[in-house]
Amino acid sequence: MRIRNVVQLHTVNKLQAFGWPLVIMLLSLTVVLIIGALVVNVAAAAGDGAQARAGMNMGMQWNGAIFALLGPLIGFGFTAMGQYFPLALGLGLTRREFATGTALVFAGNAAFYAVIITIGKVIEVATGGFGLGIRFFDTHFTGTGEWWQTLVQTFLLILSVMLVGAAITTAFHRWGQSFLWVFWIALAVVVLAFSAGLVLSEPFRGFAVDVGTMGWLPWMGVVALLGAVGAAVWLALVRRAQAR
Amino acid sequence: MLDDSKPLFVAVAEQIEDGILDGTYAEDDPVPSTNELAAFLRINPATAGKGFSLLVDAGVLIKRRGIGMFVAPGAREALRQRRRFAFQDQFIAPLLREAAQLGISAEDLADMITKEAVR
Amino acid sequence: MTAIVTRQLSKHYPEVRALDGVSIALEEHRIHGLLGRNGAGKTTLMQLLTGQVFATDGTMEVLGASPVENADVLMQTCFIQESQKYPDTFRAIDVLRVAAGAYPNWDQAFADRLVDEFRLPVKRMIKKLSRGQLSAIGIVVGLASRAPLTFFDEPYLGLDAVARRMFYDRLLADFSEHPRTVVLSTHHIDEVANLLEHVIILDEGRVLLDADTDELHHAAMAVSGRAADVDAFLSDREVLERTVLGTLATATFTARAGDERAAREAGLDVSQVSLQALFVLLTTANAAAAEQPIGTRSATDVATS
C-alpha cells in the first residue's frame, strides 16, 4: 500500500504542515501573556495585585485562546477530504490507501500537538501561569488534571474532531446541500430539545447536572465515541466517493 | 510540407523517394531512422514506420538488421521507371483537361512544350 | 496487448447520460485521439477508466484488469485532467514531489528539463498561477511520469501556440524513445492529427467513429464545381454536407476507391477533408439526424445559400 505517498501528500508542504500552526499558537500565547501582564500591572498599581491574579487564573480556566491552534487542526479534517482527496485520486492513489494514510496522519498530528500542549501545560503549571497567573495550556478544554490526562484528552479531542470533520465533508460531497440541511436541522432539534428539557423538566435538569459533572473518564469515553462514529461514517462513505 | 491528398504514410514514402531521385540519398546511403523522421516531420513514428515498410516492400529500401535502413542498389533507376509510368496519369491527363477547358488544341500544346523546353 | 477494453460502458447521472454503451478497444503503445464536442463524454470516459468515477453499467479492463481501487493498475496509469483540483496551500513543486513518489517510472531529470522549458514557477502557490501555467504542471507530470498508460484530457488549456507545439514535440520525442499508450483528448484536432494513430469520436455519450487515422484519410472527400455536375456525380452517395452559391456547389461525401480520379474526370475540383473538418461534419450530421424523424436519417443535407 502506498501509504508513504499519502503521508507525503499531507506533509510535503512542510511549512504549512507544521510551521504555521505553531506560529499561530505562539502568537496567541503572546497575546494572552500581554493581557496577563497588563492585568497584573494595572492591579498592582491599584494595590490589588494578588487578588487580580487569582481572579484571572480562575476565569481563564475556560480560556479558548488555545483554539487558535486547535482551530486549523480541526479544519484539517475538512480539507483532507475536500482538497487532498481529489489530488490523491488524480495521482492514482486508491481510496483505501488514502483513508489509511490520512487516518495515520490524523493520529500523528493529534499525537504531536497533544505532546506540545502537554509540555506547555506542565511548564505553565510549574511556573504558576508563566509568572503571571494566566492560563493558556491548562484549561478545561485541554484538561486541568494531571499531565497524562491532558495528553489523552487533547489527543482524543483533536483526533475525534478531525474524523468527524472528514465524515461531514465526505457526506456533503456525496449528498450535497440536502445533507447540510438535514445535519443542521438535526443539530437544531437536539439543541432545542435539550434546552426545552432544561427549562421545563426538573428531572432533566438533574440529569444534565449529573452529566455535566460526569467524571473525566466518562467524558473521554464520549469524545472517543464521537470520534469512532466519525471514523466509521467517513470510512463507509469514502469507499464510494467519486471525483467530481 | 507533406502532400495531404494522400494518406500520411504514403506521402512520407514519396518524400523519401523524392530524396532518392534527386540524389540526396545515394544508393547504399542510410536513410534517417523512423524516430528521426517522425520528429522532423512532426508525425507519429508508426506512420513513419509504415512509410518505410512501403518502401522496403517495393524494394526501394533495404533493412540491415541491427544497423538501419539503406537505399537499395538500383533504387534510383527503378523509381524513375515507376514514376515515368505514372507520369501520364499524374501530369499529362490533367494538362490535357486544363488545355481543353481553355480551348488549346493538342498541336498548340505541342508547340508550347517545345518553346518552353528551349527556354 | 490491448491496453483498454470496454464493453457497453455507461455512466448515467440523474440529469444526463454522460456515457452510453461505449465499447472500444485501444491497442498499447499507440497515440489515441479522443475527440468530441464539449459534454460529449470524453472526460467521463477517462474518469471511469482511472477509477475516479464508478460506472453505472458495462465492464472495462485497463492493462488487463479492472482499474477500480486497483493500485497495481493505477500506479501504471497517469491521468492529467484539465479540472484537477489542488490543495489551497500547494505549490507546483509539491505536486511534482508527490508525483515523483507515486509513479514508479518517474524521470526527475526529464521533469526538471520540462519545468525549465515551460517556464513553470514551481515555488509559487498554485492559486496564483495562470491557466497556462496550471496546464504546464499537468504536462510535466504527465510526461515525466513515464506511466505505461497516460491520459491527457485537454492538457493545453491556456497554453499559447508555441507552448502547445512544445508539448506535441516533447510528447512525440518521449513517445518515440519510451513507447507508452497515450490517450489524448483535444479540441485542436488539426494540430495533432499527424500524431494520432487511432481516433475515437464521442458524441452525446456514444461512439460516433472508431478508426485508424490512415483509414480516415479517404473516408471523406470534397468536390466542387457546377451544381448540376456535382449533384450528378453524387446522385448515389451519402452526402455529409452541401453548400450552394449561385450555380456552383461544394459537397462533402463518403468516398469510395477511385472517386478522386472519377471526380476530376467529371470536371470537378477535388480537395481533401482534414480530420478536423471530418469531425465537424460528422458531429453536426449526428446532431441534425437526432432532430429528424426516423426514416429520413440516411443522409443529411445542409444547404446554405
UniProtKB/TrEMBL annotation, chain B:
Question: What organism is this sequence from?
Answer: Agrococcus jenensis
**What does the UniProt keyword field contain?**
DNA-binding, Transcription, Transcription regulation
Tell me the protein's name. DNA-binding transcriptional regulator YhcF (GntR family)
Specify the domain of life of the species encoding this protein. Bacteria
Pfam families attached to this UniProt entry: GntR
What the entry lists under InterPro entries is as follows: Tscrpt_reg_HTH_GntR, WH-like_DNA-bd_sf, WH_DNA-bd_sf
**A GO MF term:** DNA binding
SMART domains with a match to the protein in the record: HTH_GNTR
- Ranges for domain HTH gntR-type come to 6-74
Taxonomy, top ranks, is: Bacteria, Bacillati, Actinomycetota, Actinomycetes, Micrococcales
